[in-house]
Design brief:
single chain; alpha+beta; three-stranded antiparallel sheet; 7 helices
């Protein structure tokens, strides 16, 4: 039986809570991720920030349509201000059918993988789809 361990990205890219959103966006673009895990200095998972979270922050009704104002929002605000705190996590031994159920039910793009309180990886919808693409075609 395949588990989250078999699909997950080990040692995922993370940011600190005080990372400016401009850096978060630059890192997402550089590595091609739609979400980044937010960890405290001790390595504890404290949140997840997604491209949707950033878009909502920048497109707030409090921000004008001026591009420079949007850049200022990205420079002046940090990951902790728009992240989802205490995200749903899974242990690495979670069967992939359960991972798929959780991603679908909650409409998540990813689930952090945590064992014994330590972040060990992340499973994304893309990871799951890539695994499904490896299955043999039915006769």
């Amino acid at each position: 039986m395949l588990t989250a361990y078999d699909l997950m990205t080990i040692d995922p890219i993370t940011v600190k809570p005080d990372t400016p959103l401009l850096e978060v966006v630059a890192l997402m673009n550089k590595v091609g991720n739609r979400q980044l895990l937010v960890v405290a200095d001790d390595g504890e998972l404290v949140g997840i920030v997604t491209d949707r979270d950033v878009r909502l922050a920048v497109n707030s009704p409090l921000v004008t349509d001026e591009p420079l104002d949007r850049i200022q929002v990205l420079e002046q605000h940090t990951a902790v201000e728009c992240m989802t705190r205490d995200p749903k996590t899974i242990p690495s031994d979670t069967p992939i059918h359960k991972v798929a159920q959780l991603l679908s039910a909650y409409k998540y793009g990813a689930l952090p993988v945590v064992d014994d309180g330590q972040l060990v990886g992340i499973v994304t919808v893309t990871d799951l789809l890539n695994q499904m693409a490896l299955l043999p075609e039915p006769d």
